[in-house]
Structure formats: C-alpha cells, structure tokens
Amino acid sequence: MEPTMEKAEPPRSSTPSWFAADPSKAYYEKLSLVWAPISMLVLLVGVLGTPLYKYCDRNSYLLITVLACLPGIFIPVFFPCPADCGRPYAQRFWVKATVWIAIFGFYGNYFWTHYFYELLGAKYLFDSYRFNDVPLVTFTATFFYFTFYFNFVNLILRRVARFSATFPSFARNLIWWANIAALAYGTAVFEAVSIQHFPLYTYTETEAFMVVGSVVYGLYFVIGFPMFFSLDEGVAPRTSVRGAATNALAATAIVTLLLDLWRLMLGSIYEVGRSARIPVPFVYQGRECPEAPEGVAEVGSCSEQLTSCAEQASSWLYRKIMFSANLLQEKSTEVTRQYEHL
Q1: Burial tier of 160 (Cβ tally within 10 Å: 0-12, 13-18, 19+)
Q2: Which GO terms describe its molecular function (predicted)?
Q3: What is d(CA 93, CA 85) in angstroms, rounded to the nearest whole number?
Q4: What tens digit of pLDDT does each residue of 36-84 get?
C-alpha cells in the first residue's frame, strides 16, 4: 500500500518569511499570487464588468475560464523551481495543491451550489453548459479563484502561527481560529461584492446576501483554509498526492455537514425558521415537481410518479426475465431432444 506521507527533503529555510520553508511550496505560493489574480481580473474586469458579457455564449465563457486556468499548470511544468527539477511530479507541491483544489472545488460546485440556490436564493441566468444544474463555467473559474484564496491565506496563517508560537495553548488556538474565521468571512464578502454588479447572477436581497450569505459561504473556508495550509507545512514529512486527496475529501465532508446543519437549524437566510420546508438541495425526491407542459395531464406528486415508474420498470423487467427463461427452457429442451435422436 502506498504510504500516506513521504520523507521530507532538504533544503528548508529556517528564516522567518511570509512564504513556506519548503521551497517547492514557496514557489507555488509566489506563482499563485501572480497568475491567479490576473485570471480573476480578466474574468471580473475584462468580461463580467464590461458589456462584453452580452456577447458571450456558453462556449465563450467556458473557453475564457479554461484558458485562465492553464497558466497554473503549464508554468510549473515548463518552468519548475530548482527544488522541483529532477523530482517526480507526485512530490512537487503544485501537483498536490492542484489535486486538493480540484477536489474541493468540484465538490463545492456539484453539491454546495445547491445550498446557494435554496438557502441564499442565488440564480445563474447566463447561457452555459450545466452539470447537475450548475453552470460548467463555475467549475473552471473556481480553480483560479480558490488557488488565489488558499495560497494567499497561507501567508497570513503562517505569520499568525509564528507570532503566537510562544503563547499559551489556549491563547494560541483562540488567535488561530479567530483569524481563520475573519479570513473566511472576508473572503466570502470579497467575492460577493466583486460579482454583485454582474446582472446574470442574481439573489433575493442584497444586504442579507452580503452579510448573512457570506457566513454561509464562509463555512467553505473555515474548514478549507487550515486543511490546505497543513499540506507540506513545517518540518513534518511531506504529504503525498494521496494524502492531499484524502485531506481535501475530509474537508468536503465537514463542510457538507456544516451546510446541512445550517439548512436544518436555520434554513433560508431570508426566512429563518423555514428550514423544515427546505429539502436536501441535491436530492431530487425532495423537490417539488416542475409544472407539467401545457396539454399534458399531471400524474400526481413526484413520489407518486417515481413509484409509478418503478412499478412499470419492475413489471417490464419481470416480463423480460420470464420471456428469456421460457426461451432458454425451450432451447434446452430442443437440444436435449436432438441428443436423444443421436
């Protein structure tokens, strides 16, 4: 079985710095603070913040965001840092970080976007390919957004950890988590403010979305920031790619639990207490049926329709099985008779 961790590799700087002591991690943090913000500006200012978005179709949005992701992969491949030269790709920090962010971002879009729909009243109105009713372009855009967020926050958390290293354990933990909470909320507010003028992303009420909705979005980062920070940090053995993937999956499980607890206990940010009427967002059986098209009679509730379909499918499958069994029996009898005549 592949070990979860790999042995640390020198050299690691002992000089206090904003960047990681591990040169491979420090290289990717520096790189991410350059290419990721540029990609964000291209999307926010160059497209969404100008009339250009009116001329973009689903292919244009997807192409822009895919191209904006490529520097984060091609630059470290073709221009690696000295510490990564000759090192297997699986041991390079940028690979582990990419795996982590890809998993966390995919899970967030595929599942957690539906909490935005239900709890925050958010809607995407622009033309886009959709996957699980989520615009495909958000999956690609999330990659460079999260790359910037997580690597930038690494710098701050590292300084906080070094500043409070000599403090008593209680004070150190209090400072640590207070900073994480502030950074998580600030990141959520930043994104909400940066996209508020894009008319094809709507929500029910601006103030509630900014103030309370940012708390919901901040749950992503309260868990994600410290989990990502732990990769190849300090003098501990280096994290493997499998370890990075496991770390990301653990983070997604915790965030999902927190979001669902919000749904159960508080419900919509606009109608606190409506939680009992909000189903699990990504479970179809809990949703109301869409209205039947004109001229098509409604059959009943979703559960009744599903039950009816299941019964019909079971009946059809039973008939097919019995037909096949009878056919097989006839063929078997025919073959037996042929052998009897020999």
Answers
A1: middle
A2: cycloeucalenol cycloisomerase activity
A3: 12
A4: 999 999 999 989 888 888 899 999 999 999 999 999 999 999 999 999 9
